[in-house]
Amino acid sequence: MLQRMLSFCLAGAILLVASTADAAVKTKTVNYKDGDQECVGFMAWNDEAGDKAPGILVFHEWWGLNDHARNQAKKLAEMGYIAFCADMYGDGKVTEHPKDAQGMATEARKNVATWRKRAQAALAQLKQHPNLDKDKIGAIGYCFGGSTALQLAYTGEKIAAITTFHAALPAPTPEEAKQIKARILVCHGADDSFIPPAAVTSFKKALDDATVVNQIVQYPGAVHSFTVPDADKHNIPGMKYNKTADEESWKQMNQLFSEMLQTPAK
């Protein structure tokens, strides 16, 4: 009987801690602009983090700013970060149709200068948060969003650390690589058929040649979209959730950000 009562009390305490953490996290939709283009972003932060909290930009997959990106932002907010999800397509466009997603991502990548400018507009929006420590900014990105985070780094923006998940890896030019200020962690599925091994090799060489501190972690058995719990619903060969790779990559991201943004590991 006593053991059952203790178990009940422990469960209640866990629920209380969880509900308190949830209550501290605030979210809001943010309308902002990239030139004349209207964008609809998403901000998440922790009311208990205090002043001068570090910030993280979150760049979405090719589907647009959907629940996956928002959920990641909320998780970051629970950890004490101010997280801002960029709207890389404008007007809050989002889709679940692969052909539409491919079309929107292709259009966004068509003009690299415009692509980077859209990412910089999101960075500028994050910097408007009154509690942000502007010297402690990181970025994460998924698939198309991972490539976007890298393109932002290639502009020379002051980003301390970047983590990509199942991202395409466009290699920077030697001049662009020299401008990178971030430490870069690439979380990559070892069996990702969407990203040619040659692309991984050329990306790594470009960063190494410029003495950019970087790490590429390849997860055995993981394919594309390994962090997305419902990746299988699209029935696209080569896209599948992998719980082990998802959890391990998040842990390694946290270790990098804890070191570079001076926040406690969780």
Question: How would you describe this structure in keywords?
Answer:
266 residues, alpha/beta, Rossmann fold, 42% helix, globular
Structural summary, described in words:
The protein is of the alpha/beta class and 266 residues long. The protein has a single domain (23-260), classed as Alpha/Beta hydrolase fold, catalytic domain (Rossmann fold), CATH 3.40.50. 42% of the residues lie in helices and 23% in strands. It contains eight helices and eight strands; from the N terminus they run αβββαβααβαβαβαβα. It has helices at 2-24, 67-78, 98-110, 112-126, 144-154, 174-179, 197-209, 243-260, and strands at residues 25-34, 37-46, 53-59, 82-85, 132-142, 161-165, 183-189, 214-219. The protein has an eight-stranded mixed β-sheet with strand order 1-2-4-3-5-6-7-8, with helices on both faces. Helix 5 (144-154) links the parallel strand 5 (132-142) and strand 6 (161-165). The chain is globular. The protein starts with a helix and ends in a 6-residue tail after the last helix. The model is unreliable at 4-21 (pLDDT under 50).
Quick description:
42% of the residues lie in helices and 23% in strands. The chain is an alpha/beta fold.
